[in-house]
Amino acid sequence: MEIKKTFCSYIAASIICSLYSMSVTGAETENIASPDFAFANTSLSYGDNGYQEDPLGMIRAFDGNPYTSWHPALREDSWLGQLFPEAMAVTGYSVKGNIEHFKIQASHDGIAWQTLDTQREQTISSQLTYFTIPEEKVGAYQYYRLYTIGDNYSANINMLELYGHRGESSGGVPEDVTMPQFASASSNAWVMTDTAFEYLPNLHTLAFDNISGGYNFSENTYWRPVSQNNEWLAQSFTRPQRIVSYTLEAPSQYMAPEHWLLQASIDGSTWLTLDERQNQELGKEKQSYEIAFEQQGSYPYYRLYFPSNVKPIGVSEVELLAAGATAAPVPQDDAVMVVIRDAFGDAPWYEEGSHGGFVMAIAQGHYNAELDVDESVEFRTSNINDDRRDSAPIDLSEEAFKADVINMSSSSTTYDAGKKAVKSLNDYYPQQPLKITSAGNASTVCTAEAAELGRQVGLSASALEAHFAGVPQSEWEHYYKACDMTVVAAIDAQQEESWIVVAGYMGDPYRPQKPLGILKDRGVVAPYKIDGRDGTSFSAPYVSALAAMILQRAPELTASEVAAIIFATADDLGEPGVDEVWGHGRVNPARAMQYMDEQGYGYP
């Protein structure tokens, strides 16, 4: 088939082609796993000198030979998986080997993982044992892995098979997934200013602002690149999207491109052409174009490439329309779910002696009589290790396919960690639940200068010491942990409406624990000391409990609406209105519940 040959000539030929040699659009009982797609975090082989590292050992679980096996180097925290070149919907799996406790997980990017199925105390050994993925958890993902749980002594996997099919469209109306903040371009664009023609950055975002604009310069909402040859306009998504069609609109027929290619990439450097149009006579009206089904796939990068055009070109509006199957299933029920991301250590989450357990107890309404969280509210955990608090990916240890509130009793000091957290949360929960994070226990202020320094080098002690080498500590210590860089990253991504940052209130309206600075618009304060323990780690779940109380009475409210209620009912402190010390003020559960009464919201 010619299309298959063209496809394979573009991207890592053998791997991509091996997927297309399978009839993945056929029966769901077909094994779609392949040695070409294998990955693992650890692998051993046994030789003359005993066990040793085996970088390619993971392929032995997918080679179809029941007598070869993958041996993990660790008794726990080991995984074995498949990275498909596009999103696949796995409906079941089979395992042969010596393993007792494990879970099957899926991901869009290999960072944020959803648990699809959990098995404990299995006696799998001599035969291939089949397991079904619950229907409500089947979604289209590129990454799948078997993750070992706890102690699996002398574990090995002879065979791991995944059964499913290529991720199909859900049958709904495809939606435009482009956003201005995802845009990039080959060159700046020119525009008429008050004085002259100028080439200005960021004008490529105008092609994704959903405003058609006009030909007159005063109505400019289009991208007009430096030349008409070898120019491109791109979108970089937070997770792979399967684009099924696109639209293109020019500012006028005099700047309409005649020749373009829609291309996609898995890495942003090697591009596959999905659709090419030549000798086009594009007018002012929006035109729609379909992508052949054989060419569709799930990619994080897309671009319109303009190789050669006779006249100067301009693009007023572009839409990339995605199939619905690339998103994880989102249950639409009234149960309120709160996810606690914390370090739970060796103690189970319900043991309040651990840091995470105490955070959980506060979010459940313990220790504070003014907090009344209904027993119907569900709680899930997301565990992180203390020594990786600033870099650990979000990886739920319990199934939580939806979330209404996510409590993060930790703060990031690096911009990369902040962006990773925002991206992971977007991938897990595209419905944008309310994220409540602690401001940190340092008394330093998040100024614009501190935030910019955090973007460049980070705000940890080691990063600042290296950056200010030779400078007295007294001259730079005011930057130390001044900003929660996760909130800064969310603001930069224009997603701040679903975030609240919480500083501590120590009982004195003239003695702030941590002035909020430029985070004031998303900030509140809450009790700093609870049951003899102090820290903003415990202030944040106090606010999460209040958010759960609001949602248990009105589960239809969005994250921004819940945040607005918390802000509006807070006790004003310091300067009237929102200020850089106290933000919106001290949260007041009684006033928030009074507001809910006034709005006619009942109790569960």
UniProtKB/TrEMBL annotation:
Keywords from the named record: Hydrolase, Protease, Serine protease, Signal
Domain F5/8 type C stretches: 27-165
UniProt GO BP: proteolysis
GO MF term list: serine-type endopeptidase activity
Signal sequence segment: 1-26
Keyword Hydrolase appears in the UniProt entry: yes
Transmembrane portions of the chain: none
Gene3D superfamilies (alphabetical): Galactose-binding domain-like (2.60.120.260), Peptidase S8/S53 domain (3.40.50.200)
Protein's UniProt name: F5/8 type C domain-containing protein
